[in-house]
Amino acid sequence: MKKVEAIIKPFKLDDVREAMSEIGITGMTVTEVKGFGRQKGHTELYRGAEYVVDFLPKMRIEVVIADTDVERCVEAITQAAKTGKIGDGKIFVSDVERVIRIRTGEEDESAI
């Protein structure tokens, strides 16, 4: 099993969710996060004063899937989240050793 974690622009969340749903991935965790990479921050004007916004709003999507679904999942996220501009985000794929569904006690792939 693998955990796929994607950091994307907030306005792309619905597109990514739809793309994942189309390939049969329905369970996911979404978190509002802030951060920056190469995009750095930007300057904004508020009541006549200029200030720097260092951390930009992003969305983090996490899914745990079978090894066989990883490439389709990564491709779906990439296609749906891409704008071609700096700050589109990143996708991380890592191993998951064990999953337990609390309600039923099911484990591993039957639990996802």
List keywords for this structure.
single chain, alpha+beta, four-stranded antiparallel sheet, 37% strand
What does this entry look like structurally?
It is built from two helices and six strands. The termini are close together. Strand 3 (42-46) and strand 4 (49-53) form a beta hairpin. The protein has 112 residues and is of the alpha+beta class. Helix content is 20%, strand content 37%. It has a four-stranded antiparallel β-sheet with strand order 2-5-1-6, covered by helices on one side. The protein is elongated, with a radius of gyration of 17 Å. The mean pLDDT is 90. Helix 1 (13-22) packs antiparallel against helix 2 (70-81). The protein has helices at residues 13-22, 70-81, and strands at 2-8, 29-35, 42-46, 49-53, 56-65, 89-95.
Low-confidence region ranges: none
Shape: elongated
* Topology as a string of helices (H) and strands (E): EHEEEEHE
Within the largest sheet, what's the order of strands? Answer: 2-5-1-6
Q: Sketch the major β-sheet.
A: 4 strands, antiparallel
- The amount of beta strand, in percent, is 35-45%
The overall average pLDDT, rounded, is: 90
Indicate the structural class: alpha+beta
Rg computed from alpha carbons, rounded to a whole number of angstroms: 17 Å
Helix content: 10-25%
Oligomeric composition of the shown chains: single chain
Number of helices: 2
Strands, total number: 6
State the end-to-end distance: 9 Å
